[in-house]
Amino acid sequence: MTDPVGGVGNSPATYTASTSVDRSDQMGKDTFLQLLVAQMKYQDPNSPTSTTEFMSQTATFTQVEKLEEIASQNAELLALQRSLSAGALVGHTVSWTAEDGTTQSGTVSSVRFGSDGANAVVGGTEVPVGRLTEVSLPA
């Protein structure tokens, strides 16, 4: 049997996964573009940036853009995978830790998708998929 992880007081802790990461310690494409424009604006007219160096910087900018696109596509794929996994719960018996710390169980009749993620509907009660502790085939 599993015990809920304790949160503040006696209530179990719940955690929500995020699909995006905001890191202020890394530069994005906007910062890179601002630096490139500033470099071009303040370059020495007697010694301009070589075309090879300029092309290298442009290629780096393109790489940053493509990496951001890939990260966005990966986030979309992860959301789709989570939705498909949640939909596969219909008809299965699940157990979860309720707000009061007790273990509840029942059969999933449907799954609802909202801005807060997927919720399994068990006996009229919506249970966040992240709170599920066990999934099994119905008896």
TrEMBL record:
Organism: Geodermatophilus amargosae
Name the UniProt record assigns to this protein: Flagellar basal-body rod modification protein FlgD
Pfam families recorded: FlgD (PF03963)
Region (Disordered) location: 1-23
Keywords: Bacterial flagellum biogenesis, Cell projection, Cilium, Flagellum
Keyword Protein biosynthesis among UniProt keywords: no
Entry's family note: Belongs to the FlgD family.
GO biological process: bacterial-type flagellum organization
Composition bias, Polar residues: 11-21
